[in-house]
Amino acid sequence: MKKIEVCCGKSCSGMGSRRILDFLIAKLGLKPGEENDTMSLNTSPCMGYCARSPNIRINDDHFIFGANVKNVLSDIEKGGKYVEPQILDLTDDFLNDLS
Fold this sequence. Notes:
With 99 residues, the chain is an alpha+beta fold. The chain has a single domain (2-98), classed as 3-Layer(aba) Sandwich (Glutaredoxin), CATH 3.40.30.10. Helices cover 24% and strands 22% of the residues. It has 3 helices and 6 strands. A hairpin with a 3-residue loop joins strand 4 (56-58) and strand 5. The model has no long low-confidence stretch (mean pLDDT 92).
């Protein structure tokens, strides 16, 4: 089963992720939070790839960057591009470096 998540962060939303989500809802017959035998559809907060908006994540580690309505279904079928998971170090307080 393909787990499809459409980014709804500010950058992706500004670059058309809502239009892509509406298109997927119509074509797949799924609403966010629903699934069928082959895929699930959901939304996600910012995925961290804002410069490559709008983004879709497939199965947690494959991405479609710069998604568009014209190619999104074929890009999902192809499975997207594998991206090594990001590890964020939230313990580093870089703001103290400015003083």
